[in-house]
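Trying the structure run again after the queue cleared.
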Amino acid sequence: MPSIVILGANGFLGKALVGSLDASISVKAVARNISSATKPKNNVAWFEADLTIPGSLSSIIQKDDIVINLVYIPSESTKINLQIIDNIVNSCTYNKAARLVHCSTVGVVGATKVNQVTEDTTCIPISNYEKNKEILEQYLKNISSPKLDIGILRPTTIIGRGGQNLLKLANALKFGNQFVNYMRACLFSYRPMHLVPVNDVADAIKHLAFLPSNLNKNIYIISADDDPINNFHSVEKILISSLGLKPRFFPVVPFPFWILSFLLRLMGRSAFNMKRTYSHKKIRSINYKRKDSLVSAIQKFSEGL
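Done. Tokens:
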């Protein structure tokens, strides 16, 4: 019976994906090191594998399996990360896997000045992370793999219980200087946060994995930028409440957006356009619908601290 093979299964997104799969689905969860805290499930078999080693997946991936790649090692070079994706593709091809869904990031668009980013927006990556992620996408788009169906998912900033995003802000609110926190709130004001619940990303991966039609190397963005609370002011307010902190006494006086945009440009950051949004119309066109809310995801994040 074909299985879902999840590479990077013990990471934040991997754990959410493993936990969300129906008990009737056979799952092979692959990690470099299996955590002792991993929760056992009857339909999940865990495997340890070093994906930098060619052939490390040869005994794991089988005919008609659907492979989900969540692996990226920020501390490693472009060459190592390319070697990993090459090993994955070779194992999929050799063992006749049916499909490979690769999780990338919207960060690949980099410093584009486009207000509404789509899958067709030209990428202008700036940071090494953005450049490396874009290189991996190009590798997958350019390889010849007629019998391996490939799709690429680009999430925005993923949040939820156990995640690292929002952790710096939460710690600043809990332990930081109140004046600094106030000035940050004034500077960031209604800056877009581009957050997306981890459960929605897991659902998007499953949607692509089980889509009846071929993915044909298509790219899909998953975002929640249409949610009206997806801005710093609203997110901070929910965090303060969820963390059980006292509301701010003085009202926030928003600084003009151009000040933050100028500072971000000065720092060499790519997300300097305060009007930027990431469109998920394309994935909605193949009948995907988000189910989770940002409020719920932020609250779950807070509960996990």
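The longest helix spans residues 78-94. Worth checking whether this holds up in the mutant runs.
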